[in-house]
TrEMBL record:
Record protein name field: Holliday junction branch migration complex subunit RuvA
Species annotation: Shimia aestuarii
Keyword Metal-binding among record annotations: no
Residue runs in coiled coils: none
NCBIfam families: ruvA
Region (Domain I) residue spans: 1-64
GO BP of this protein: DNA recombination; DNA repair
Keywords linked to the UniProt accession: ATP-binding, Cytoplasm, DNA damage, DNA recombination, DNA repair, DNA-binding, Helicase, Hydrolase, Nucleotide-binding
Source organism phylogeny: Bacteria, Pseudomonadati, Pseudomonadota, Alphaproteobacteria, Rhodobacterales
Similarity remark: Belongs to the RuvA family.
Comment field on protein domains: Has three domains with a flexible linker between the domains II and III and assumes an 'L' shape. Domain III is highly mobile and contacts RuvB.
UniProt subunit comment: Homotetramer. Forms an RuvA(8)-RuvB(12)-Holliday junction (HJ) complex. HJ DNA is sandwiched between 2 RuvA tetramers; dsDNA enters through RuvA and exits via RuvB. An RuvB hexamer assembles on each DNA strand where it exits the tetramer. Each RuvB hexamer is contacted by two RuvA subunits (via domain III) on 2 adjacent RuvB subunits; this complex drives branch migration. In the full resolvosome a probable DNA-RuvA(4)-RuvB(12)-RuvC(2) complex forms which resolves the HJ.
Domain (Holliday junction DNA helicase RuvA C-terminal): residue spans on this chain: 179-225
Amino acid sequence: MIGKLTGRVEYRAADHVLIDVRGVGYVVYCSERTLAALPGIGEAVSLYTDLLVREDLLQLFGFTSLQEKEWHRLLMSVQGIGAKASMAILGALGADGVSRAISLGDVTAIKAAKGVGPKTAQRVVIELKDKAPEVMALGGTLGQALEGAPASEGALVEEDRAPAVVKPAPVVKGGGAAVQADALSALSNLGYGPGEAAGAVAQAAGEDPDADAAGLIRAALKLLAPKG
């Protein structure tokens, strides 16, 4: 399986990009949002990828962050959501927007994506709500992946013989500053104010000093949920 590609943009189309990796061209399908963020023709690019395998089809999908890739994987697990619908949701909302909508139960935001009906959107929120904290705790975009790399670098970064596995950042427990900062950042991305987010994270860390970032996010969301 191919989990990440680093190369140069050969050409761009409406729904995909061709990446030249040392003379081998990979057609990678991306959401509109991801395509808009990619560099120009001839420039270096690095994308996390997910390979869709069917009897009559092999398709690579590209993502700028582990969060986006993981949301694609989870969205595809929901009945009624295929690759096209997943790309539409990610294109409309982005990874942070999907996290926000699912965490807050915002069915309207999900169904705003092209081709996603109200019943399917509701199913997405119900089935994936408990997954949101773990995805939000995933860190790392590929924006810095090419910084400091030689201009000629264009290697296939991940071994194609091993299954591509999205791994979260190393778990740091004990309610440390780094863990609380990650949780606070995730809550800020959901639209919570600095004061209320910081208070909820601090309370959650105090109640469970051994919580990791995902655990703090989950606990803080419960504290911030409307009462009654």
